[in-house]
Every structure is written in structure tokens, then in C-alpha cells.
Design a protein that fits this description.
Radius of gyration: 17 Å
CATH superfamily: P-loop containing nucleotide triphosphate hydrolases
CATH class: Alpha Beta
Structural class: alpha/beta
CATH architecture: 3-Layer(aba) Sandwich
CATH topology: Rossmann fold
Order of helices and strands: EHEHHHHEHEHHEH
Number of strands: 5
Bound molecules: adenosine monophosphate
Amino acid sequence: MAAVRLVILGRQGSGKSTQCARLVEAYGPVHISTGDMLRAVVAEGTELGLRASALMDAGNLVPDDVMIGIVAERLAKPDVVEHGFLLDGFPRTPVQAEALEEILSDTGADGVRAVNIDVPVDEVIERMLARGRVDDTEEAIRRRLDLYESSTAPLLAWFEEHGLLSVVVGLGTEDEVFDRLRTAIEGVSA
Ligand code: AMP
């Protein structure tokens, strides 16, 4: 099978992190999490890190041009070219999605697909409340989910319009969800 080039989408509490780890193990793509990359930049304390930190703390997005630069640079590295990628947290806006398409066509890469791990809002709220974290009040959870919804809905539409979206039901056991992901990925790459 050719290298996997995947954008992974899913609400907080959808089991996305767990499934990312399993996908990396099964298919070997480079896991590119823009949240993790930004936290690493923040830890370095550079000027970009300070700017990013202020935005992230306020719950805002880092500007598109900055994010696009960071991701374009990462996608050009030899490990990604060879092993493919699992993009997690990018694109976050339609402008980033357009940029991704351009970056990939510049590198002559095969098409990227998006997989949405779909878990209904009520279910993810239940899961997050069950974790019992102090900052996980129902109101705070709903606020974060609303933010995710408003930034992701146009993206889902964008991938759908381009015929690049697979929706995977995120209910059931980890194994069941993983099997559905495999079917979605291998079904289109076979
Ligand atoms: P995450 O770990 O994916 O929730 O990301 C943590 C924070 O990093 C987000 O709340 C944003 O402030 C920032 N961030 C991560 N990815 C992006 C992106 N693609 N575009 C803009 N900001 C981002």
C-alpha cells in the first residue's frame, strides 16, 4: 500500500489521539500534530513562541500564514515524503485547507484524504464528564465544542465537496473504531 496521507478530524473526546497512535503503528505515517508543534515552539521561548503562547492562552487560533509556513516546511522533510503523514489539528480553517492542497500539488503528492471520527455531541460530553477533570464543567465543554464546530464545519464541507471525506462512526470499542478506520483508508487506497 502507498504511504498514507491523511487529515484526521474529530471532536475532543472522539478518541482521536488513541486512534492516531494506532494508525501510526499500523501504517507508519509521520504524526504531525500542530498543537504539539506549537507547544514545542512555545517551550523554546523564541519570539514566535511568545506570540503563539499568547494566542493559544486566549483560546485563539495562530494566524493562517504562520501555521501554513510551519506545516509546509514539515511536509517537505524527507521522512514525511517517504512515509506519508497523519495531519492532526491542521487544516483548521478553509484558508489552511486551500494552502494544503497547494502544498501537496507543488510536491506532486498523491491526493490527501480526510477522515472524520464522528461521535455525537451528547456522547463526547458524557465521556469528558466521566474523566472528571476540574476544568471539564459541562458549560466549558460545550463552549470548546462550539468553537470546534464553527471552525470545523466549513472544513468538513470543503473536503466533502472535493470528494475527499470519509466519515467513520466513533462509537463502540477502540478496536471497532480502528477497524472502521482501516476499511476507510484501505478502501480508497487499494
Ligand atoms: P490542539 O492541541 O490541536 O488543540 O491545539 C492547541 C492550540 O494550538 C489551539 O487552540 C490553537 O491556538 C493552536 N493551533 C493548533 N493548530 C492550529 C492551526 N492549524 N491553526 C491555528 N492554530 C492552531
